[in-house]
Structure formats: C-alpha cells, structure tokens
Amino acid sequence: MNEQLQPLKKPTRTGKAGRSGTQDDIVYAHIFEAILEQRLAPGTKLSEEALGEIFGVSRTIIRRALSRLAHESVVLLRPNRGAVVASPTVEEARQVFFSRRMVERAITELAVEHATAEQLNELRQMVRDERDSFSRGDRGAGIRLSGEFHLKLAEAAGNAPLISFQRSLVSQTSLIIAQYESGNRSHCSYDEHMQLIDAIEARDAAQAVSLMMHHMDHIDSKLNLDEESASDDLHAVFSHLLQTKKRGSSVPAKG
Amino acid sequence: MNEQLQPLKKPTRTGKAGRSGTQDDIVYAHIFEAILEQRLAPGTKLSEEALGEIFGVSRTIIRRALSRLAHESVVLLRPNRGAVVASPTVEEARQVFFSRRMVERAITELAVEHATAEQLNELRQMVRDERDSFSRGDRGAGIRLSGEFHLKLAEAAGNAPLISFQRSLVSQTSLIIAQYESGNRSHCSYDEHMQLIDAIEARDAAQAVSLMMHHMDHIDSKLNLDEESASDDLHAVFSHLLQTKKRGSSVPAKG
DNA sequence: GATTATGCGTTTGTATACAAATAATGCAAA
DNA sequence: TTTGCATTATTTGTATACAAACGCATAATC
C-alpha cells in the first residue's frame, strides 16, 4: 500500500520550482499516462494527499492537475468526495465518437487548406514514433501518440476552438480505447495515418476526408461497444460500484 | 477606486458555506456578467486580491473562477502576470464563428430528433425572458440569455461533449458580440429563436438547420469584423498592446 | 541625456493549517 | 443476525502565510 514512487524531479523545492506551471504539467501528464497504461483502472480513487506525496508537491498542484483532467472528462470530480478515474459508459463513448467524426471532418478539410510542409513533416515523424511504440509493445504510449497525431492535425487546421475541443475528445477517446478495445491485435492506425498525410499533402480534400471517416470507422469497429463489454474480470465488471472504494472487500471471494 | 460592492452572500463564513461549489459559481457568474455588461472592458486586469475582497472570499475561490473563465477563453491567464479580460481579435472571432456553425448544425439536427415537449417549453420561456430583457434595455442580460438559449438547445440535443464545447463557444460569442456589435439596434434574435423552436417542434430538420444557419449569418452580419472595429474608446483600441505591456511606450501620445 | 543597473513594492505561486463534510467503525437494540 | 445510530477517522474545501517573480522607480554610469 505504501510503496512510494520516486518523486520525479522534486528533491529541492526551491531549486527548480522557479519555472511556474511546469509542475502542473508533469503531474497531469503522469496521471494521464498512468490511466492510458491502465495502471490506474477506471473507478480508481485519486486521493489528493496520496498523489501529493507521490509527486512531492502539495495538494494545491494536484488539485490543479485533477481539475484539468476533470475538464477533459478523464477523471470525475465529485464534490466533497474526491476524484476518480472516469469509466465512460457505452453511451458516453458513442457521444464522443459522434463529436469526433464531426470535428475530424472539419479539421481534415481545414488541414488540406492550411497545413504547411513543416507541419506535414512533423506529422510523419509522429506516425513513425507511434509505429515504434507499438512495435516495442508499449501499448499505452502507442495509444497516446496516436491521439497526439490527431491533436497535431487539429493544430495544422489552425482553428483555436477546434484544437481545444479536439484535445478533450482525444483524451476521452484514449480512455475509451484503453477501456473497450477488444483483443490485443495491433492497432495499425499508423498506416492509415500515413495515407491521410499523403492525401493532405496532395491537397485532395475528398480523399482525405474519406480516409479520415474510414479511420474513424476502424477505430469504432475495434471497440466492444455493442454490449456492456463482457469482461472476464470481476473487478472491471463492478468498477462502477467500486468507485466509492471499499478496502479489499471488492471481490466477495469469502463472504 | 476603492468603492466596494457588498459581498453577495458572504457575511457568516460558516453559516452558508456548507454548500460547496456554490461560491465558485457565484463569483464566476458575476465576473462573466460584468464582462458582458462591459463594466469590465477587454484588457482590464483582474487582480485576485481585489476580487477576493469584493466578493468576500479568499483568493482560492477567485482563482478557481478565473481558471474556469480562462478555459472558456473569456479571460486570459498569463503565468506570473495575472488575469485580464480577453479581447478577441477579428481572426479569433472568425474562428469561433466557424466552429459555431459546425456545432449549431449538428445540435439542430440532434435536437430535431431528441427534443422533448418539456424542453421545447423551456426553450420558449427562455426566449420570452430574452425578449423582456432587451425591451427593458438590459443589453447585457439579453446577450447572456440569448447565449443560454443556444446552450439549452445543446442540452436538448443530448450529446455531452457538444454541450461542453457549446458552452465555451457561447461564452466567447457573447464576449465578441459585446465587443464588436455595431450600433445599438435591437438584437431581434428572439424572433429567430422562436421560429427555430417551431421548426424543431415540427421535426423539420431541413427547415430548422436552414433557420439556424441564417441566424448565424445574421449574428455575423451585425458585427464589425471587416475592419478592426473602430471603437471610440482608446482603452479598447489599444488593449491588445496593453496586454503584453510595454512600459508606457505603447501609446506615443506624448513622446 | 540616454541607457542600464539595482532596490522596492506589489502580485502571483505554492504550501500548509484549520474547518466542514463524508465515509468507516463499533455498539446497541430488535 | 441484522439494522439503525452514534462516534471516530479520513478526506476534501477554504483561508492564509510565506516565498518567488514581476513591474516600477530611482539612481548610477557611460
């Protein structure tokens, strides 16, 4: 219970703390990554004090990070009852995908118009990184990088509100994939990502949008959204009940 | 300078403070309304301590409210340099409107499918309130209620991510209208709002979307987005220079 | 006289102490 | 044994104290 991760950078409180805002980002990124890696299961309670001790910062910083995660619907913030890792329902997942199709279509059209050569190069590099992560077997990083590709595309589109919305949608999608993706068969999204870049570079809007929509279909089809995801893990099955955290009594193994 | 608004509800700290979260909302709402009423001009600095004294709460609460406003791009949060009322540029305004057209189209289509009779009644009531505000000459409340109509419509559409995005877009639109709307001629949006409800109630998707798009056009056409909004207020005119703050050299009035 | 250096005052960033609420535990009674 | 209640303990909500950063003003130097 009291295994303690080494604080990432904390030792001297006064030494590096000068750069403001950085600590938030680090805590945010680590929690987010832990969720994608499924080291933090949906429903897990995120205690402010425990996290503060782990990361070597005060609850103030943790609170800011949780607030940001909550805004992206990756964690759920319940008044007076703390934060838990979100466990999106099938219906919530469907709503996210509906919004994503809408946004990705717009982003693709704008990117065909506005993406610069430099941005396209950066996108290609991201796809390579993504492919490497999956081939290394680092699924969490792969999912994250796949999301960052779509975020980068939004930046290439150049519409600030869309970028912000896309950030939230991508985060939620990553969580949904981590939670619902069936089988561990390779993601393969990097292949579709590359084709998409080609179409954008060729300024072929129709083709790019078509590829993007098929890409969305593929992501969708890899998920078990038809039924309530017949998991073989009792813990996962009852995670929505366990949110309130009941010591070790979660599995009625004994009685 | 030191005129102090009476604290909204604060007197006994222990008495009512039990309901958590409420204070944030109150502070948020008051600042937001003040911005819409243009009692807080774009570029105005929002000191945490000053606001805390005005509202009778600590900086902690103010900070949360500012954080929320910043997330909706209504205030700008500059690290180590405090918060200022946002002053969206013409380009930013165009981006917001682009996103709004996209979102409103989707929302309208979904609302035609899902809006209940009760929701439609609530929408009609909101339009009446909006009309009353404008006829009272309360422009700020009118702009705010007009925005809340669109937000309510998003709720009727029933897609959570869209609701969240719409909230941000509506806030920004309100700020843009407050900043760029030409002439004080009546808003008249309530008339278009009523027609829109009729079309939704008739489950006429094509008509509803058409009305919504024309409604967007009308809002757009009332704004001075063609040139840099020839304001007669020096403060507003140079607010974009004052943000980054370059000594007093921003206005070469004297030398 | 202009420009850079330095000190002071103000404002924000972070940690922490205290208060309030919620959840857990134990006891008593049916 | 179970159910309800009271007490205890843990956790969150808020305020505040302290530290660091920033802006401004004055002064010193070229």
Automatic annotation (TrEMBL), chains A, B:
Residue span, HTH gntR-type domain: 21-88
GO molecular function: DNA binding; DNA-binding transcription factor activity
Pfam families per record: FCD, GntR
Matching InterPro entries: GntR_C, TF_FadR/GntR_C, Tscrpt_reg_HTH_GntR, WH-like_DNA-bd_sf, WH_DNA-bd_sf
Classification via SMART domains: FCD, HTH_GNTR
Residue span of region Disordered: 1-21
Keywords: DNA-binding, Transcription, Transcription regulation
Protein name as annotated: GntR family transcriptional regulator
Protein source organism: Pseudomonas putida
